[in-house]
Amino acid sequence: MKRITDLFRRLWNEDEAEVAIEYGLLVALVALGLVTVFNLFSDEIGNFFNKITNRVANCPDGSCE
Fold this sequence. Notes:
Elements: H1 2-13, H2 15-40, H3 42-57
């Protein structure tokens, strides 16, 4: 038990741990924002890729526009 408390005490006193936590929170916030945006625009993103897929499928030699 002493080892665990020593570990937490050392992490609490080190500045590097604070920086790592701040970066972790920043990454989590960005990831949450991306997930939110993708959920809001999922239909539009799907339609965009479907249009691209259809254009490629209907023009196999690449000369169509």
